[in-house]
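Our working data are protein records whose layout never changes between entries. Instead of coordinates, the fold is spelled out as a row of discrete tokens. Here is such a record, shown just as it appears in the course material:
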Amino acid sequence: MGAYLSQPNTTKTFADGGNSTLSYGFSAMQGWRVSMEDSHNCIPEFDEDTAMFSVYDGHGGEEVALYCSKYLPEIIKEQKTYKDGKLQKALEEAFLVIDGKITTEDVIKELVQIAGAAHRGAACGQGVTGGRFGNGGGCFAP
């Protein structure tokens, strides 16, 4: 069946967490794909006023989703607009930065390594809570 299983993998992974101001939970299921292609971030203390919850859809491969999960939070924090408190603009800029990196030789090498690790069994939306940001691939909220 190509990139699809003959029956869905309905095994679910789940976790929960939180801090003194919020609680969260998540669940993930592989479904019909031959491997889990999504990744996520649950960062209840992204900064003093903001939490970040993100889902990255692999669209046919987990490598870029895993890469984004690993690097996007820090790229967001590196943006001047983030430091100026403009979260929506910072998220938009961070998307463009990470998009520009994806096709560089170093990142392609890392994606190949991630793909190899994922196929050997390594584990592998956008949102931040608190009310400051909504949509653009997810939501930020302080």
Observations:
- The chain has one domain: 36-141.
- The mean pLDDT is 84.
- The two ends are 44 Å apart (CA to CA).
- Helices lie at 63-78, 80-83, 87-102, 105-119.
